[in-house]
Write a structure and sequence with these properties.
Blueprint: H1 3-15, H2 28-31, H3 35-49, H4 70-85
Length: 86
C-alpha cells in the first residue's frame, strides 16, 4: 500500500469517514478531526511507517510538520520516510 492510501485510510478511520470521502485538499478540520484525533492519527501514522513525526500537540503551529491539509501531511511523511532510508 502506498503512503497516500495508508495515510488517507488512517485519517478516514479517525474521522469515521470512508477513505473515498478524504481528498488531498481536505483539512483535518474539514474532516472533523480535533486536536486529540490528530494526535491519535499521527501516532497511528508513526506506527504504520516506523517514523517519528516532529509534531508538538501542545503547539502545533510551532511544529516542523505541516498538517494544514491531507496532501501536506502525505508530503511530510514521504519526506520523513526518504530521510530515514537515506
Amino acid at each position: 500500500m502506498d503512503v497516500q492510501s495508508k495515510v488517507i485510510e488512517i485519517l478516514a478511520e479517525q474521522a469515521l469517514l470512508e477513505p473515498s470521502d478524504v481528498t488531498p485538499d481536505s483539512t483535518p478540520e474539514e474532516l472533523g478531526i480535533d486536536s486529540l484525533g490528530l494526535v491519535e492519527s499521527i501516532f497511528a501514522i508513526e506506527e504504520a511507517f516506523d517514523i517519528s513525526i516532529p509534531f508538538n500537540a501542545n503547539e502545533p503551529q510551532n511544529s516542523d510538520f505541516d498538517i494544514s491539509s491531507v496532501a501536506k501531511i502525505i508530503a511530510g511523511i514521504e519526506r520523513l520516510i526518504a530521510e530515514k532510508a537515506a
